[in-house]
């Protein structure tokens, strides 16, 4: 028995409109009462036809996309679909709300703020958000999105654009220095290093001076070095870092 059945269906009204959708069900499609996620309140399907079953949700989505394109469900008056499925989400051709004006956005903002002040509604929204964000499917989708090359390229471009701003760069550098050079932070980090100490680093400066280091992090902060680069130097993954060389020994 499969954990879920992935299928594409056609639900319809007798002598009326139809709806093409995709479903992942915990029960067999033949006994699944689901009729669709349509938002048209005037559409009331009474029957459903299973068009095809698939081994994976990706195959079902692709079949749904092909059917939506072939029948142009977002503009065809014989269908209750208001949007057409695509590989990146839904696309609208009809029924799509026009861009909201400033007055409409302000009215919606005021309405949401008023609703947020009501404890019952606020708790209901928060409960729904927690349930959505804690679901395994949501975490997997978020993980896949973050691992995609498109997401990485967009984030890399965004970071580069931010750091090209002199004011932003100075502000971030100052925050990092204030956090990492404070005495309280040094003490907490040193306690952690002493508790989990594993290596003795023997580092050589560009001038030939030798240092025996147990806390690589604090040493790099004091000498304005990159800790990860120095770790790679000490482990033999790279030859040097700003002229510094070294090796490490397990304690």
Task: Please describe what this structure looks like.
The protein has a 3-stranded antiparallel sheet, covered by helices on one side. Strand 6 (199-204) and strand 7 (210-213) form a beta hairpin. It has helices spanning 57-71, 102-116, 119-134, 136-147, 149-163, 166-180, 183-195, 216-222, 227-235, and strands at residues 5-12, 18-25, 47-54, 83-86, 89-92, 199-204, 210-213, 245-250. The protein folds into 3 domains: 5-92, no CATH class; 102-146; 196-250, Arc Repressor Mutant, subunit A (Orthogonal Bundle), CATH 1.10.10.10. With 251 residues, the protein is α+β, with helices and mostly antiparallel strands.
In brief, what are we looking at here?
With 251 residues, the chain is α+β, with helices and mostly antiparallel strands.
- Biggest sheet character: 3 strands, antiparallel
End-to-end span in angstroms? 54 Å
Classify the secondary structure makeup into a structural class.
alpha+beta
Major sheet: arrangement of strands: 2-1-3
Specify the number of helices. Answer: 9
> Count of DSSP E strands?
8
Radius of gyration: 29 Å
Number of domains: 3
Low-confidence stretches: none
Helix content: 40-55%
Task: Name the shape in a single word.
Answer: elongated
SSE pattern: EEEHEEHHHHHHEEHHE
Which secondary structure elements does this structure contain, and how are they paired or packed?
Blueprint: E1 5-12, E2 18-25, E3 47-54, H1 57-71, E4 83-86, E5 89-92, H2 102-116, H3 119-134, H4 136-147, H5 149-163, H6 166-180, H7 183-195, E6 199-204, E7 210-213, H8 216-222, H9 227-235, E8 245-250
Antiparallel strand pairs: 1-2, 1-3, 4-5, 6-7, 6-8
């Amino acid at each position: 028995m499969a954990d879920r059945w992935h299928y594409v269906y056609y639900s319809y009204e007798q002598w009326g409109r139809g709806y093409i959708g995709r479903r992942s069900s915990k029960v067999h499609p033949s006994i699944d009462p689901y009729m669709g996620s349509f938002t048209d309140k005037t559409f009331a399907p009474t029957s459903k036809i299973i068009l095809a079953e698939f081994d994976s949700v990706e195959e079902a989505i692709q079949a749904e996309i092909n059917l939506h394109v072939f029948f142009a469900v977002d503009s065809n008056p014989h269908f209750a679909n208001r949007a057409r499925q695509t590989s990146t989400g839904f696309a609208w051709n009809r029924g799509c709300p026009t861009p909201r004006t400033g007055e409409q956005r302000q009215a919606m903002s005021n309405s949401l703020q008023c609703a947020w002040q009501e404890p019952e509604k606020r708790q209901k929204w928060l409960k729904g958000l927690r349930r959505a964000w804690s679901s395994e499917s949501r975490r997997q989708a978020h993980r896949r999105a973050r691992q995609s090359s498109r997401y990485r390229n967009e984030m890399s471009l965004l970071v580069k654009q931010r750091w090209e701003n002199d004011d932003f760069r100075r502000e971030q550098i100052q925050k990092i220095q204030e956090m990492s050079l404070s005495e309280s932070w040094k003490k907490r980090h040193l306690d952690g290093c002493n508790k989990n100490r594993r290596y003795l680093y023997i580092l050589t400066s560009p001038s030939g001076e030798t240092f025996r280091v147990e806390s690589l992090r604090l040493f790099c902060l004091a000498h304005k070095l990159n800790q990860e680069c120095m770790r790679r130097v000490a482990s033999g993954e790279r030859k040097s870092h700003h002229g510094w060389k070294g090796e490490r020994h397990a304690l």
